[in-house]
Write a structure and sequence with these properties.
single chain; alpha+beta; five-stranded mixed beta sheet
């Protein structure tokens, strides 16, 4: 998936909590489909396994957009996270394919299946009563997706030479306005002020936006400041922040004609 002209990366991140495949091109253009693996057999989503990606990656989903200029296809199992990643890739000019199998599924399905296989009605009812409330939250899926994207970013970027290095942007969404300042510094640091009013957006905990972007900055090796300056609607606040981040990323990653190979630092190294 590499190209001499386009900056690309393919990442696999498998842990006990999540399985992630991710393909990124910082310069847009077509991307190969993510390959079938033992973790991803390309099954269609089922009612009891909602985070399983669709069978075909060219299937249109809530976070997909395929054109000659960009391939975007995202499926993490968390709809609002997909929406934000879609906006980020779109406005940064990236092509991005992500699929993740996380640990969001309730324990009910596992114990119910075991009880049914045993034909044990008593255990089926008991397990249902015991385990219905138990569900792992969105933490691992969100964190690991951002970590994988950060790794892909720094891998695709390659040597940190001949780059604009700094990027900044303002982006509005109706009443909301966000400012992002980004430095491809190799000094990971994140400061974010989002001012969310509620605990959730869809099935994503609002805390995970801050934590996820901090995780991305860590693995991407960037200094990142995000400030949501105003906004009454949490969805608008989040989306304006991701759009501003996208534009800042695009600016910082710009290759400077005539300065190829130059390290944009007084230290002589990034």
């Amino acid at each position: 998936m590499a190209s001499s002209n386009r900056r690309t990366a393919y990442i696999v991140r498998n842990t006990n909590e999540t399985k992630i495949q991710l393909s990124l091109s910082l310069d847009g253009g077509p991307l190969d489909l993510l390959p079938a693996t033992a973790e991803f057999q390309n099954h269609r989503p089922r009612d009891h396994d909602p985070e399983t990606p669709p069978e075909y990656q060219n299937t249109k989903t809530h976070a997909s957009q395929i054109s000659n200029l960009q391939h975007i296809w995202i499926w993490t199992g968390i709809g609002f996270l997909d929406h934000m990643l879609h906006a980020w890739a779109k406005h940064a000019g990236w092509s991005l394919r992500i699929r993740c199998r996380g640990d969001l599924a309730s324990m009910l399905d596992h114990v119910t299946l075991n009880a049914r296989l045993r034909g044990d009605l008593f255990h089926l009812v008991r397990n249902w009563l015991m385990f219905v409330p138990i569900e792992v939250d969105d933490h691992h899926t969100t964190e690991d997706t951002f970590l994988a994207l950060g790794t892909a970013f720094t891998t695709a970027l390659g040597p940190r030479t001949g780059l604009a290095r700094f990027g900044y942007a303002y982006a509005p969404l109706d009443e909301a306005l966000s400012r992002v300042v980004l430095d491809i510094s190799s000094r990971p640091f994140f400061v974010g002020d989002f001012g969310f009013q509620g605990p959730m957006m869809g099935n994503l905990n609002t805390q995970m936006i801050h934590h996820g972007l901090g995780s991305w900055a860590q693995n991407a090796g960037v200094t990142l400041h995000i400030d949501v300056l105003k906004g009454e609607n949490d969805h608008h606040r989040a989306e304006s922040a991701f759009k501003a981040l996208a534009v800042a990323c695009k600016g910082a990653c710009e290759r400077l004609v005539g300065r190829e190979g130059e390290v944009v630092s007084t230290k002589g190294v990034l």
